[in-house]
Structures are given as C-alpha cells and as structure tokens.
Amino acid sequence: MKVVVTGAAGFIGSHLVDGLLADGHEVLGIDSFVDFYPRATKEENLQSARDHRRFRLLEGTVQRLPLAGALDGAGQVFHLAAQAGVRSSWGRDFELYTEHNVLGTQRLLEAAVEAGVPRLVYASSSSVYGDSPVLPLREDSPCRPLSPYGVTKLAAEHLASLYERNHGLPVVSLRYFTVYGPRQRPDMAFHRFLAAARDGAEVHLYGDGKQTRDFTYVDDAVAATRRAADSGRPGCVYNVGGGQRLALEEVLRTIEQVTGRKLQIRREEPQKGDMRDTFADTAAARRDLGFRSTATLPEGLGRQWEWIRSRR
Ligand SMILES: NC(=O)c1ccc[n+]([C@@H]2O[C@H](COP(=O)([O-])OP(=O)(O)OC[C@H]3O[C@@H](n4cnc5c(N)ncnc54)[C@H](O)[C@@H]3O)[C@@H](O)[C@H]2O)c1
User: Fold this and answer.
1) Reported pTM
2) How remote is the C-alpha of 295 from its chain's centroid?
3) What structural domains and CATH numbers belong to the chain?
C-alpha cells in the first residue's frame, strides 16, 4: 500500500516510516526540516529509510507543496508534521505555530478530500487539555490549553473533525502523552536529562519536580498510530499514554538508576505553558485500537540511554 507520512524526518514520524517500510509498504515522506532542531539530527533519523527503495522524500511544507500528486493513490495518510514545543510557542514565534500547525493541517485536509484519501490520522497532543482537577483525562474532558502550542494543536483537531463531518473525510485524531525513546527531540526533558548524565552537566529542572506526567514509549505510540489507521473510528479522538503517572523527581531517580550516574540538579522557575499533571484514560484506545503499553519506564529509558550514549 502507498502510505504518506508528514513530519517523516521527525522523532515519531521517522519511527513510523521505519515500521511501515519493514512491513512492506511504499512510503512517501513529507518534511520541511524546520530549524527547531538541527537538520543533521533529522537526517540521522531518516538514515535507514533513505537507503530503502520503497521510500521517497518530498521536501517542503504541507501548506506550500502541491499535494495532489503526493496523496494520489495513498491508502493511508499520517499527519505528524508540526512545529512542536510548548515553551517556544509564546511571542513572535506563534506565527510559525499557526502556519505549520493550523494552516498546514487545513491545506492537507483539503488535499485529502480532493484525493479521496480513505484514512487520515492526525497527531494531536495531551497539551490540548490544560490543567484539570479530575484525572485521568478522558477524551471528553474539557479542553483548555495552557500554551499557544496547545491552542494550535486543538484548532487543528477541530479542523480535522469539521472535515470529517462536512466532507466525510475519515480522520482519526490521537492525543499523544509525552512520547520518549531513541530519537526523542533534543528540547524534551528525558533527552536533556540523559544528555546531562552522559556529559556530566547540570540538569535544569523547571518547577518543584512534583509535577506528574504520563509517558509513552515511542514504539507504543507508533503501534497506536498504525492501529488508528486500521481500526480507529472516523471522527474519533483517542488518548495515547503509557498508563503510568510519575512525578518528575521520581523520573530523575529512575534516570540515576538506569545510567548509574548521579545527576546535578539545578532548580529553575516553572515555565509558562507547562501543565501541572498529565494522566491519560486510555480505555477508548484499548477498546478500539487494541492499544497497550509494552515498555516500562526503566526499559524505555534504558533504550533511550543507549541511543544518547551512541551519539555523543
Ligand atoms: N513528542 C511528543 O511527546 C509529542 C506529544 C504530543 C504530540 N506530539 C505531536 O506529534 C507530532 C510529531 O512530534 P515529534 O516529537 O516527532 O516532533 P518533531 O519536531 O521531531 O517532528 C515533526 C517534523 O515535522 C516537520 N515539519 C514541521 N512543520 C512542517 C510542515 N509545515 N510541513 C512539513 N514538515 C513539517 C519538522 O521538520 C519535523 O521533522 C507533532 O505533530 C507533535 O505535535 C508529539
């Protein structure tokens, strides 16, 4: 089957591409190599795909590329391209977030309708929820994003459901909860913590360390993403979370155990836009996507540690 993956050179997108190629699909990747982190890192992510004869890369943004030819004949489209990162979404850079996340999604949805794409999966985020007094977060919990990034991810999710309702485009949205593992983006906490452990550098911990997160190992996020294309219900939104809620200070202790190194922690002010707690109710994903979490945090962190160490 021909499959299109936007954001193919990114952290999650490149794992998805590798899995699709391994299963015999023909993959067209789309990526504009936005400079949020170095192109060289993304080229590394794509290294094995680039050598594959069933892989093709179209370089450019989803909002500017002529998408008709790209989507023609595609059996599934996975839309992961986005300007990621909560903290940098304030201020002038918000323009980038609206361009890539909102306009980019709208252009892709239009093109998908034109091409008659049979299934589209949109990568949304737990950031759409904001802080909630009630945990775990269910798909029908109120969405009050705390960051401009979360606002753009929610806007794109609404666009996806509009196109499903008005044009019958079979779109499924997934709200990923903090994905980690090899190739994790360099701005993300586990990457920064493990790199600091490797380099003997200080770890910057924002807030009191008691904020909690639900973490998802990347292979599990990719499996849920692929199942969403096969068996997700069009128009539905699914939480994708590892199912274990841990305070950041507990994560730091786990990192010390996994790496065998003592971290030098420097406490910093909490960052605007960071949620206090995240915890996913994954009943819907378990029921419709057969989702389950396969990696424990020490296992997943161990694999990310091996990766971080291999690329000093
Ligand atoms: N990593 C997480 O924990 C997490 C959590 C929630 C949601 N998400 C969502 O999952 C998706 C993938 O996240 P990631 O962590 O792999 O990010 P990433 O930054 O590693 O990957 C995104 C890729 O999209 C590309 N891109 C950005 N805008 C584009 C555009 N307009 N056209 C074409 N390519 C474009 C970038 O160059 C990048 O390679 C994103 O949509 C993100 O919002 C990620």
Assistant:
1) 0.98
2) 17
3) 2-177+217-241+279-293 (3.40.50.720)
For residue range 87-105, list pLDDT tens digits in order: 999 999 999 999 999 999 9
Report whether residue 123 contacts ligand 1, using a CB cutoff of 6 Å: yes
217-228 mean pLDDT: 98
Q: Are 291 and 282 in contact (CB under 8 A)?
A: yes
Q: Which of 283, 131, 305 is nearest to 212 (CA)?
A: 131
Buried b (16+ CB within 10 A) or exposed e, 42-72: beebbeebeeeeebbbbeebbbebebeebbe
CA distance 252 to 211: 12
Helix (H) or strand (E) holding 166: helix 148-167
Asked whether the beta carbons of 157 and 128 are under 8 A apart, the reply is: yes
Is residue 149 among the annotated active site residues? yes
Find the helix packing angle between 148-167 and 104-115, rounded to 10°: 20
Residue 136: cis peptide before it, omega within 30 degrees of 0: yes
Question: What is the pLDDT at residue 124?
Answer: 98
Q: Which of 149, 176, 217, 238 is catalytic?
A: 149
Q: Is 118 exposed, middle or buried (0-12, 13-18, 19+ CB in 10 A)?
A: middle
Closest Cα to atom 15, ligand 1: which residue? 11
Nearest residue (CA) to ligand 1, atom 13: 12
Ligand 1 pocket, residue 49 CB under 6 Å = no
